[in-house]
Amino acid sequence: MEFIGGLILFLVGFATLASIASISTLGLNICWGVTGLFNIGIAGFYAVGAYTSAILTAEPSVPSNPHLGGFELPIPIGWAGAMLASAAIAWVVGKICLRLRADYLAIATIGIAEIIRITFRNWGGLAGGSYGIHRIPRPFEEWGQPWAEIFFLLLVVAVVVVIYLVIERGINSPWGRMMRAIRENELAAAAAGKDVERMRLQAFVYGSALMGLAGALSAHYLKQFLPEDTEPLTATFLIWVMLIAGGSGNNKGAILGAFVVWGLWTMSEFLTDLLSAEWATRAAYIRVFLIGFLLQVVLQFFARGIIPEKPPVIRREEKAEAAKPG
Amino acid sequence: MAARAALASPMIEFFNDYIMSALVLGSIYALGAIGISMIYAILRFAHFAHGDVLTLGAYLALPLVAIGVHPVLTIPIAMAVSAVVAIGIDKAFYRPFRKSQPIIMVIASFGVALMLRSAFQLFWGIDDKYYWAIQPPLESLEPFSIGAKHLYIGGAVVILIGATHYLLAYTRTGKAMRAMSDDPDLARVTGIPTEKIVIWTWIVGASLAAAAGVLLGMDTRIKFDMGWNLLLPMFAAAILGGLGRPYGAIAGGMVIGGLEELSTLIIPGDYKSAVAFGVMVLVLIFRPQGIFKGRVL
Amino acid sequence: MTLLSAQGMTGGYGGMDILKGVQLAVDAGEIVVIVGPNGAGKSTAMKAIFGLVHLREGSVVFDGDTITNAQPERLVRVGLGYVPQERNIFPNLSVHENLEMGAYIRRDNITASLERVYELFPPLVDKRKQAAGELSGGQRQMVAFGRALMTDPRILMLDEPTAGLSPLFMDEIFDRIIAVNQTGVGILMVEQNARQALEIADRGYVLATGENRYIDTGPNLLADREVVESFLGGGGGNVDNKNGGEGGAGKPDD
């Protein structure tokens, strides 16, 4: 019985983290899959969302762990605040950076994410520095194990479902069609009079808000949040692998990819835990190596069909030729 | 040390505290940025694993130093092996995507960076390593605190940049690299064998990065993430100098190195890395072609 | 004798056919000009010969070698040179280095070829060490030309060589084209300034909407009023005219 209990708890925990990750992948999909914006700043928005919710909802700070707030506000306010904060930062970043080409945008978002992370890590008065924020409330925690865990999982799953439905509606709406038109052929869309810049900014902000929400949920789940929790490996890279493995541009794929890759990640941790102490640390590095390798395999064998070929550079005359009927 | 500083004039103090480190850091950035710049211009993607090529060079020197070779003399071997490794990585992980959108190669290089870093941790562990059990003495040109190691580093940098200049300005291959850097399509149309030049690009880029790694190891220490931590400043340097402009990359490296070191006069040292990011974002927004007017892809 | 022969060229960008069965031929030492309205596929046809646009049907033969969809490297070796319309020089290389790059595939001594280029384009001599991107439009065109000549091509393909040049330079460029031709190099050129180009053409092809419409000597085409009015407009390129197709000039072979 205990074994079954332990197994259930394990699966619940696994599903919770995978679901939270899928919120990030869904957010990334809005940026990348639908609109073609290469956002490597996931860790930054994740951190902003997590810390914001923590500051708003945690118990007041104590001298041994000073940070802003600990305002003990209700949890939903924390989550709303998290999304708003991430959206606000994304809006500023997007206003400045979105006109850059894809490669440049990637470098810029990584740079900004790093600045955000460095700030959180070093500005002790803001978010507890390297000590982080603790005593963050978790919904349902009064109900004790295992019900607290199970209900939290159900809550997260409900959130995922709601987000999924909202996005699917959005994609099939005129807004979504315009987004895809912009992704396919930006020049044509602009010529047709669509406000390309505004729409890309919208996509960027929505996507980043979701990443912030994922951060907030993580913070509440873990009941604490430290700078290590925003390590780019798990907070950014893994999300990208999940989306690419699941099929970018595809919401179901985003969720599926989150579960599959998180499953592989957890399994590899399982396997390495079985090894002796001396091998255990090395095994951790083998895991990371395999994830990097997995990405290459996915890119070369599974994602290539989805990734379109580089469009050729076409001059005006030839564009005119190609646009002619018949 | 305190007594000496009290005797020295403020200018010399300034030199010792800031200029020397700025020069060393700037040179290392410069060597790494050349590769990033050329790879971007010729292969058209941002090579996120370049910092780890730097680390690779540093680690490759370790076994040689262990058997008694002076670190500076290990540089040619570190360069050669890193070049071969880079060519292999290109063939396995980047070449399949030559015709795809460049962003895919960026993603692939991110994964390669991860693989390299975890390989370093696997083979060499996570402890700091050093070439010298005891760092060689520092005060050899009183009152400037320049040590023997600084002379070695400076000499190596001069030779490397000189050799690169010779290659680019006077050899057929170097000119073809500059031509491809200007316009890869025209280079193809001219009949230049583009895949061969791509291999040369990796040779030059990777070997300079590897050399930078050994030099950095000589200056400080060898650690699995030493190159990764420099990746963004090196990108900033390449962008500042103008992508595809190797001499611009050198200038950009020195500027970023200088700015980073001098920034500690105004802002806390923890935020040093933010300086490079800040410069880079500013350049990307206001003058994406950089100082020397490079590619704006 | 026919040096370059393209038959039934069909293809275009990304699945869309811009060319529909185009044929072109250049005999050794000829000047051949391709004219037609905007969007006719003139540049595309030349790019297709040089392997830059994929032909899904058709063939291109150069001196007996089939070179359909071949790589530019091979074409340059075989004796075909190409000067694109835009971005046809390496701006950060010096004039001299541009020429050197033109001769990259050659292993022999290129001094003679260099001298020939400087003889043909004297203004470049003083500028040889200057970055090519700093030159004026006309001088840049000369560099582009010179670069392509460095492989001693037997046929030189030029895509709108006078585009964006002042009338004075236009004449100069045409003179140089003739001078180059007189050294035995065949010329295949797309030109928007149809009148002037056809005046010097041994043969002219009129293309419209990706198909051959007329083939004849340059002067004959100019003399044919139908051709001039329907396809050559008032001295420059114009919108495609749906009329035309009848007329006195020769029809393409089938």
Number of helices of chain A: 13
Query: Could you tell me the number of beta strands of chain A?
Result: 0
Kindly report how far apart the N and C termini of chain C lie: 21 Å
Number of helices of chain C: 10
Q: Overview of this structure, please?
A:
The complex is a heterotrimer of chains A (326), B (297) and C (254). In chain A, 73% of the residues lie in helices and 0% in strands. With 326 residues, chain A is mainly alpha-helical. About 6% of the residues of chain A have low confidence. Chain A starts with a helix and ends with a helix. Chain C folds into two domains: 180 residues, Rossmann fold (3-Layer(aba) Sandwich), CATH 3.40.50.300; 66 residues, no CATH class. Chain C is 33% helix and 24% strand. Chain C contains ten helices and ten strands.
Question: Strands, helices and their partners?
Answer:
The complex is a heterotrimer of chains A (about 325), B (about 300) and C (about 250).
Chain A: H1 2-34, H2 42-57, H3 75-97, H4 102-122, H5 124-127, H6 147-172, H7 174-184, H8 186-191, H9 196-222, H10 232-246, H11 251-273, H12 277-302, H13 316-323
Chain B: H1 2-7, H2 10-43, H3 50-66, H4 71-94, H5 102-124, H6 148-170, H7 172-182, H8 184-190, H9 194-219, H10 231-241, H11 246-263, H12 272-286
Helix pairs in contact in B: 2-6, 2-7, 2-9, 2-10, 2-11, 3-4, 3-5, 3-9, 4-9, 6-7, 6-9, 7-8, 7-9, 10-11, 10-12, 11-12
Chain C: E1 2-11, E2 19-27, E3 31-35, H1 42-49, E4 55-62, E5 65-66, H2 72-78, E6 80-83, H3 95-102, H4 111-120, H5 123-126, H6 137-149, E7 155-159, H7 167-182, E8 186-190, H8 194-199, E9 203-208, E10 211-216, H9 218-223, H10 225-231
Parallel strand pairs in C: 3-8, 3-9, 6-7, 7-8
Antiparallel strand pairs in C: 1-2, 1-4, 4-5, 9-10
